[in-house]
Design brief:
The complex is a heterodimer of chains A (295) and B (94). Chain A has helices at residues 18-26, 54-57, 77-86, 106-114, 134-137, 144-153, 189-195, 210-219, 247-265, and strands at residues 6-12, 39-45, 63-68, 91-95, 100-102, 120-123, 126-129, 167-169, 184-188, 225-230, 234-236, 277-280, 285-286. Chain A is α/β, with parallel strands linked by helices. In chain A, the strands form 2 sheets. A 9-stranded mixed beta sheet of chain A has the order 3-2-1-4-9-6-10-12-13, sandwiched between helices. The longest helix of chain A is centred in the last third of the chain and has 19 residues, at 247-265. Helix content of chain B is 47%, strand content 4%. In chain B, helix 1 (9-24) runs antiparallel to helix 4 (72-79). Classes of the chains: A alpha/beta (295), B mainly alpha (94).
């Protein structure tokens, strides 16, 4: 069995509508500039009522391993860490929300960006399908049906990059702006080991702010270089998740998470204000010099 | 959130200035009369601050009040124990 170049650890829970699209978006030929043998997908099912099966993914030409988490939890942390332990590639991306679609060049861009530094922390940017962030758009008739229609209007998946035309960035300040988390964070295996994976202390639903915590911890490992991918992204499909349902629930999750974070870490949760390097997926180059090199 | 925070205006103002200044790494004092947006303190950070406030002061803090009172001075006036603004405030947690 040959070793893949990139492993994706993807967590899902009761995403029968969203997951097929997500998996399609992670596999060639939708994913471009990367060969089938280069990608391994480890799908961690975290206790779904109707868990996905190999039959469900048989039409996809990809190395997909489906793992049922032995003791599923409301937090995805154990499932993620189990998935990390199974990953075989030297570069591993954790896809904490199985309801997020990828743009077509995302994996190749992450793979390429990771070669630019010996200790890269490759962060992808988060978008949400729909005219506004989903906690708001759901108040204006945006629902699963509307989203299905939206994807039809852009001829997805044939026109993968048109996701950008129908989505809203989670970064108000753009790619250089303050960033709280990345749905798909790619680190070399040694960095995941150094980080100790996701912190099991985050036992609350959805893991609370475990994803921001992981991103922040990764960015503050010694001698690492954060590299944000520009021109690719992950796109959230609406599914009733804990942080995208209503403004109140979105704020409550973040506020409670902030409080618990302070208890656990002894310092306030913070957005990452240093954007690191911005890697343009189209030109395959860094479009912004390292912070330390700026005048 | 229908009671004030258990601290006076000077204490609350100083806490917010220190917190926001620390988050933003501002070289100068945080302008207390300007809106949070004006110096780049975004809504996500405001909600996070609400959680930290809860830890710091032991009260419930409704993050919506940071959007309805979107400057340090406005929030302090509304929620400090000796503030002069319209009644808002915070609720003691059990």
């Amino acid at each position: 069995m040959t070793q893949p170049a990139v492993s994706i650890v993807l967590v899902s829970y009761n995403m029968r509508r969203e997951l097929p699209r997500t998996l399609l978006s992670l596999c060639p030929p939708y994913q471009t500039d990367i060969a089938r043998a280069d990608i391994e997908i480890i799908l961690m099912d975290n206790g779904s009522d109707q868990p996905p099966t190999l039959v469900d993914v048989a039409h996809l030409d990809a190395d997909i391993r489906i793992v049922q988490q032995a003791q599923p939890s409301v937090s995805p942390v154990s499932a993620i860490n189990h998935g990390l332990s199974l990953a075989r590639a030297p570069l591993i991306g954790v896809w904490i929300d199985g309801a997020r679609l990828a743009s077509p060049g995302l994996i190749a861009a992450c793979r390429s960006a990771a070669t630019l530094h010996p200790r890269p922390v490759v962060a992808t940017l988060n978008y949400q399908l729909g005219p506004t962030l989903q906690f708001d758009s759901v108040r204006h008739s945006y629902d699963r049906h509307a989203e299905d229609q939206l994807l039809d209007t852009i001829n997805w998946p044939q026109a993968g990059y048109r996701l950008f035309d129908v989505a809203t960035s989670e970064l108000r300040g753009g790619p250089e702006g303050p960033m709280l988390e990345s749905n798909a964070l790619f680190l070399p295996r040694p960095l995941w080991d150094e980080l100790g994976g996701y912190d099991p202390a985050f036992v609350e639903p959805g893991g609370g702010v475990v994803n921001p915590d992981t991103y922040l911890r990764a960015c503050t490992l010694p001698d690492v270089q954060q590299i944000r991918i520009v021109g690719e992204g992950t796109f959230h499909q609406i599914h009733g998740g804990v942080s995208t349902s209503t403004p109140e629930s979105a704020m409550a999750i973040l506020q409670t998470g902030s409080r618990l974070y302070r208890q656990r870490r002894g310092r306030p949760l913070a957005t990452m204000r240093d954007p690191g390097w911005l890697y343009d997926a189209q030109s395959r180059s860094v479009i912004q010099p390292p912070i330390g090199a700026r005048a | 959130m229908n009671q004030r925070l258990p601290c006076d205006s000077d204490t609350l103002r100083a806490w917010m200035v220190a917190y926001i200044g620390g988050v933003l790494s501002l070289p100068e004092q945080v302008p207390t009369d300007q809106t949070f947006d004006a110096y780049g303190f975004d809504s996500v950070e405001a909600v996070v601050m609400a959680g930290v406030m809860e830890e710091e002061f032991g009260v419930q803090v409704d993050p919506v009040q940071l959007f309805e009172n979107p400057s340090i001075d406005e929030f302090v006036a509304a929620f400090a124990s000796d503030g002069g603004g319209n009644m808002a405030g915070a609720e003691q947690r059990d």
